[in-house]
Amino acid sequence: MRYFPLFVDLRDRLVVIVGGGPVAERKFELIATSGARLRLVAPTLTARLAAARDAGRLQHLARGFAPADLDGSRLAVAATDEPAVNRAVASAAEARGILVNVVDDLESSAAILPAIVDRSPVVVAISTQGSSPALARRLRTQVEAVVDGSLGRIASFASAWRERIKAAIGDLAERRRFYDWLVDGPAGDLVRKGRLPAAARLVATALERRSAAGAASEEPRGGSVTLVGAGPGDPGLVTLAGLRALQAADVILYDRLVSAEVLALARREAQLIEVGKSGGGHSVAQARIHELLSEHAHAGRRVVRLKGGDPMIFGRGGEELEHLQLAGIPFAVVPGVTAALACAAYAGIPLTHREHSGSVRFVTAHCRESVDATDWSTLAAGRETLAVYMGLATLPLLCRELVRHGRSPATPVAFVENGSRPEQRVLLATLASIESLVARHALRSPALLIVGEVAALAEPLHWFGAPPLTDADRVAGARSAA
Length: 482
Ligand code: SAH
Hints:
Layout: E1 14-18, H1 22-32, E2 37-41, H2 47-54, E3 59-61, E4 73-78, H3 83-96, E5 99-102, E6 115-119, E7 122-126, H4 133-146, H5 150-168, H6 172-184, H7 186-192, H8 196-213, E8 224-229, H9 240-248, E9 251-255, H10 260-263, E10 271-276, H11 286-298, E11 302-307, H12 317-327, E12 331-334, H13 339-347, E13 360-364, H14 368-372, H15 376-380, E14 385-389, H16 395-404, E15 412-417, E16 425-430, H17 434-440, E17 447-451, E18 469-470, H18 472-481
Parallel strand pairs: 1-2, 1-4, 2-3, 4-5, 8-11, 8-12, 9-10, 9-11, 13-14, 16-18
Antiparallel strand pairs: 6-7, 14-17, 15-16, 15-17
Helix pairs in contact: 5-6, 6-7, 7-8, 11-12
This protein binds S-adenosyl-L-homocysteine (SAH).
């Protein structure tokens, strides 16, 4: 290790940057986060640096570099595009015992600036010892993704308890275990949810129990359930919060609709349990799913309930939350990209459009009863876009009812099968003709129906996967009409 990592307090200390171009500007913005007093030596400044000077954020010496400019500084940065000047800065710094970083010149650099992930008070600094700044930046992006913003909050919370924990738990190993519990257990969960008083009560109770029961007592492990939206299939559509939940899970109960690529994001040690079929089918009854959720949570595990799309849209997420609430199991919800949004986006269909549709409605029609219970006159009225989930089985009924209640048979519709996945297919037809097209191409679940003028845009705005399969008759008809 040539460069030893070290965290330096620069608050109110002088830092000198020589140079006034874009590189100096980047260094300035980075170092300014430390609260240092910044002096820039350069004949001219970029517009942003000049603005920073005018705002009083830096002292500007508008001339060439002189060694005495470094006097009294803690750190110097040479960021000009003249190697000779940079070297002069380096030797002046060396002579004064000041750490110096020379941009793009490792040989002259006594110090290098790392890539930083700031979750204050937690700070992660990444360095490749100057060998590959690009790699360091990539690594930083990855760390940014897995270290969530709540880490800093948890560190602050823990530090507020430090003295009391130290007083209550003498043994170092025991104390470490307690901190592990504090960060990973139910108290940490509460801090992440922004419920600080509840978290504080948990820690206080745990410490009291310890002082009553002696050092050997165990903290409650506190299982929990997180409902996570897996999105429509493309793993890129899982949110960062969803990824973190998958990475922290002990057990994952997932629906068949969840793609293998999304499951691959799970923590390797997590136990995977398939509990649901796609569409309306049930390989595991809902009551059994509730039981499984309770069992695993009560055993102190972190349970992720992973559902296709968004867990709160046609996914029985509400019922599961009600069950958890009654069972007294802590829960959280991570939304997902629901099929309507994903299918529309990946088929080039804007769900609303200033000229075609001012609103969109998510509906389902998975069985005869749900079709009968639907208020078709409302759905057929106006130019609203309809996104129909689970509509494959009842398609003929659905189209017939919409037309019967006044929607034109020529209304464009798109059926998106396997939306966002590599095998996505889009059928484009009208209310009158979609049924035969679906039969001709043997469309299968999961598929989402989009009804409304906007659906026709799937043709010109197509960008993903195979172009839409259209109804040849309709296209020919439209041509002869034109
Ligand atoms: N909670 C889910 C919906 C569950 S209902 C969500 O928010 O998306 C299941 C229905 O969703 C399927 O029958 C289908 O209509 C739709 N669906 C889910 N994923 C889909 C996909 N990748 N492509 C097309 N339709 C999909």
